[in-house]
Amino acid sequence: MAHNNIIAVLDIGSSNIKTLIARKDEDIIDIIGIGKAESKGIRKGTIINIDTASDSMLKSLEEAEMMAGISVTQVVVAIGGDHISGMNSRGVIGINTKNKEVTEMEIGRVIDSARSVHLPSDREIIEVIEQEYSLDGLGEIKNPIGMMGTRLESEVHIITGLSSTTDNTIKALKRIKIDIIDIIATIRASSEAILTDDEKQLGVIVVDIGHSTTSVIVYLEGSVWHTSVIPIGSMHITNDIAAGLRLTIPMAEQIKIDYGYAFADLVHDEEVIEVPSISDRQNKTMPKKMLANIIQPRVEEILSFVQKDIQKLNCDSLITAGTMFSGGGAMLGGILELAAGYQKGVASRIGEPLGITGITDILDNAEFHSAIGLLKMASQKIDSIPTNNNKKKTTQEKQGKIFKNPLREFFS
Ligand SMILES: Nc1ncnc2c1ncn2[C@@H]1O[C@H](COP(=O)(O)OP(=O)(O)O)[C@@H](O)[C@H]1O
Ligand SMILES: [Mg+2]
After folding, report:
1. What is the pLDDT of residue 281?
2. Residue spans of beta strands (DSSP E) within 173-327
3. What pLDDT score does 344 carry?
4. Which ligand is nearest the CA of 15, by number?
């Protein structure tokens, strides 16, 4: 297999499947292919029809492959949905090396100890993220390798999801002869796209407003401490507009994107918009404020769910870098202005992906944040993912391959 320093990622969203193909050159990630296809056979991030989901994935992949002039055989995938959740865990081991020194072996053992949590039989671990270590009771150690002691403890954040979702994702991609190198939670990928190490250190919340869900992740002192998914997304705003203005869903979706505003008080009374009408086919004009009045309560509902979720953590004073928004739903006008009322003195803003070159049109499109984060996570850990320019995806040789590649451990 040729190693062309090519990375391919697939973000399986609830409205669209996004594919990015990039070439990695030293520290530069150069996007060379972009694909986007409607998520069919997928509801709330969970596959409900493998055949149609496979077709959508293939459509998205082929669009990116065509642009890149490359055929990929392996991808890193992001999955979302309200089945994703996070928990903190702790592991402890005795150090029995000859000179009591902590080596990579002990780190592996203590992480294994922390990840051995009891999960319901239908759930599995998606990612284990290191928080900190303590050695013989001395805590807040970020990297204990080379230190000496007798008892090593680790604290980790564990992101879990329904096994059926990961299994069906693997199966859907297997149908189109694509191997999965790793599976990551969407919100984790979004946060990697837009956060700097400094922001993670200062304490920051990332809120990804997707189509049917809103995901939340909290970084404190450099590491992840909380992950959760709220079952309300931008789709609910569209539904409210459709019901309120008696429009079809596609019409309401277009109105939301063209004129949607989350904070009615900031809309001038005189501003009018043109909306289609189902019944008399004639466009009608209406005050923009009226549309904002339909949208605002739903956005407030999302923001108050996020606020309640964060309040449980009791960590307000540790969030000094504020709240960052990502996901397509974050592109709604007025969202930051409305969110300002929910935060105590800390700014919120739409995240901007950093360190990406090539076809950068999508950098301003928050729908692509998680796909960009996947590229970054993949590029940090893997030098290259094999591509196969000459063979068709239908080759039999990949069948029966192990999909859960041991490389996924490197993401932990
Ligand atoms: N400019 C915009 N204003 C408001 N909502 C938008 C805008 N652009 C996209 N969206 C909404 O973002 C959602 C898609 O975001 P995305 O992050 O791709 O979701 P998912 O990952 O769940 O597929 C859709 O509900 C879409 O209507
Ligand atoms: Mg998304």
Report:
1. 72
2. 179-185, 204-209, 214-220, 223-230, 272-275, 284-287, 323-326
3. 60
4. 1
**pLDDT the model gives residue 347:** 65
What would the pLDDT profile of 198-207 be if each residue is shown by its tens digit?
999 999 999 9
The answer to whether 217 and 327 have CB atoms below 8 angstroms apart is: no
Tens digits of residue pLDDT in 267-282 = 999 999 999 887 767 8
CA separation for the pair 13, 8 (Å, rounded): 16
Would you place residue 139 in the very low, low, confident or very high pLDDT band (cuts 50, 70, 90)? very high
**Residue 206 falls inside a structural domain:** no
Measured from the CA of 253, which atom of ligand 1 is nearest?
27
Asked if 111 and 185 sit in the same domain, the reply is no
Number of domains present in the structure of the chain: 3
Count CA within 13 A, CB hemisphere, residue 224: 28
The CATH number of whichever domain residue 302 belongs to comes to 3.30.420.40
Ligand 1 center to residue 212 CA distance, Å?
Answer: 9
pLDDT in tens, 333-363: 999 999 988 776 566 778 788 778 877 778 8
- Ligand 1 in contact with 161 (CB < 6 A)? no
Q: Calculate mean pLDDT across residues 59-71.
A: 97
What's residue 407's pLDDT?
37
R_g over Cα of the chain = 23
Of all protein residues, whose CA lies closest to atom 4 belonging to ligand 1? Answer: 332
327 CB within 6 A, ligand 1: yes
Contact of 205 with 100, CB cutoff 8 Å: no
Task: For residue 350, report the distance from its CA to the centre of ligand 2, in Å.
Answer: 14
> Which pTM was predicted?
0.90
In a domain, 209, yes or no: no
Instruction: Give the ligand at the shortest distance from the Cα of 256.
Output: 1
Ligand nearest to the CA of 14: 1
> 329 in ligand 1 pocket by Cβ < 6 Å?
yes
**What CA–CA distance (Å, rounded) separates 220 from 274?**
45
Does residue 82's CB lie within 6 angstroms of at least one atom of ligand 1? no
